[in-house]
């Protein structure tokens, strides 16, 4: 998905994607076979291949967060799939329960295409992050870790941000490699409560 398409999503587009995520979760609890979105109900932008993450919180505590950085499927299908995965397949958490729905908040983040950041040292990266609160993907060898830009809301300092990202990848706090790959990205995002009734 191009950065241009990500930036071209308007509020109406994002509201539709949030509804898709809600419906994907609702379908799990309804007495029916969960159905994927009807693609003919959506406009051209939402049918283009897109990369996204869906983040779930219950009473402000993370309950699931999964997504993809590669745009392979129509965006509306990707949101549907990642919402279900975040609710029931994130191995860090027990599957979402019906009792949690009243306190559930859903955030859909549509990613721009990651761009390689040419830095030769960790300090160069820290200098960049001090001025740019973007999403970051670190990868080296067979390990990779990603933080969405929203993580800056909880981790304010670049050094702490980078330290936690390294830990997520399984590296120690001082790890750095000449072959480290750094990519950055932005998101268009929307957040809302799960407020279906009658389930």
From TrEMBL:
InterPro entries: AMMECR1, AMMECR1_dom_sf, AMMECR1_domain, AMMECR1_N, AmmeMemoSam_A
Domain AMMECR1: 12-199
Pfam (any one): AMMECR1
Domain of life from the UniProt record: Bacteria
SUPFAM superfamilies from the UniProt entry: AMMECR1-like (SSF143447)
Record-given protein name: ACR protein
Taxonomic classification: Bacteria, Pseudomonadati, Pseudomonadota, Gammaproteobacteria, Vibrionales
